DNA sequence: TTCGATGTTCTACGAACATCGAACAAGAGG
DNA sequence: CCTCTTGTTCGATGTTCGTAGAACATCGAA
């Protein structure tokens, strides 16, 4: 049994439009992409979503499989970053258009960062 | 029983990004959009797809419900046209980016026009 | 009015998906 | 070693989706 430990990121040429579109048809995943749109790498723990960790893991896997994000593992922690350049090279303008649209109607606003302190 | 005969096209403000993305995550529907991307109005009968007419009707309904297309009925015939201006006003650049991407990998090439045509 | 062409709707079904909790694996730190 | 944290994977479940066929509605034409 091969432990699929490889994050299996698709190459540029392996990305398909339908996969990307499907990945971006979920509010949570759009929220995650918006969160990552500043280009900063984020740790799993920073991500605040209204879903359980297993579901979050699933969504992050979908994003990764579609080629939207890149995942890096460091110890027990995982970090994720948006593949802006790759996306732009493969589907010019698509990501920007989606981000603009997502901002305009605030899609995935339920997804946030853990930057805020624990409420006193 | 109210016959919902109205094609129910969403207003500009009623379009949602997730609906549009979901509508465009299917190869057949992308093919239809590509076919309509020249701005010409097309009749149902001109559309050649590898699916049954009920399924085609379903796909056209999804596109219409997402606000991507506008349907007009004339007699027993129906005509469909892409809502380019509306799309551009609501989600600037999105449609163009998708069309460019779709062209680059020839998504939905199974959808075509009734080239040959008039049977006698 | 009867027939044929054109779409829509109903119903059904398998596949895919979103979701969760529980069990599991791998490091980090005592 | 043991324990805690972090993330993955594995069922299980309910929902949505894509698909087709049959029945129905509508209009034009004979």
Explain the overall architecture.
- The structure is a homodimer of 120-residue chains.
- Chain A is of the alpha+beta class and 120 residues long.
- The first copy, chain A, contains 5 helices and 5 strands; from the N terminus they run H-H-E-E-H-E-E-H-H-E.
- The N terminus and C terminus of chain A are likely disordered.
- Chain A has one domain: Orthogonal Bundle (Arc Repressor Mutant, subunit A), CATH 1.10.10.
- In chain A, 42% of the residues lie in helices and 15% in strands.
- Chains A and B meet through helix 1 and helix 5 of A and helix 1 and helix 5 of B.
- The structure holds a DNA duplex (30 and 30 nucleotides).
Question: What's this entry about, in short?
Answer:
In chain A, 42% of the residues lie in helices and 15% in strands. With 120 residues, chain A is α+β, with helices and mostly antiparallel strands. The first copy, chain A, has a three-stranded antiparallel β-sheet with strand order 1-4-3, covered by helices on one side. A two-stranded antiparallel ribbon of chain A has the order 2-5.
Q: Which sheet architecture does the biggest sheet of chain A show?
A: 3 strands, antiparallel
Largest interface: A-B, 24 and 24 residues
Number of E-state strands of chain A: 5
Q: Within the CATH hierarchy, at the fold level, what is the topology of chain A?
A: Arc Repressor Mutant, subunit A
Q: What are the secondary-structure elements of chain A, in order, as H or E?
A: HHEEHEEHHE
Mean pLDDT of chain A: 88
Helix/strand structural class of chain A: alpha+beta
CATH class of chain A: Mainly Alpha
What is the quaternary state of this protein? homodimer
Strand content of chain A: 15-25%
**Count of all domains of chain A:** 1
CATH architecture of chain A: Orthogonal Bundle
């Amino acid at each position: 049994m091969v432990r699929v430990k490889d994050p299996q990121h698709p190459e540029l040429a392996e990305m398909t439009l339908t996969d990307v579109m499907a990945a971006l048809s979920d509010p949570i995943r759009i929220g995650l992409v918006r969160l990552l749109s500043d280009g900063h790498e984020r740790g799993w723990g920073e991500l605040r979503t209204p879903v359980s960790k297993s579901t979050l893991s699933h969504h992050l896997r979908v994003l990764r499989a579609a080629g939207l994000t890149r995942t890096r593992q460091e110890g027990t922690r995982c970090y994720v970053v948006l593949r802006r350049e790759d996306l732009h090279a493969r589907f010019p303008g698509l990501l920007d258009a989606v981000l603009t649209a997502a901002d305009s109607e605030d899609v995935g606003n339920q997804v946030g960062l853990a930057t805020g302190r624990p409420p006193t």
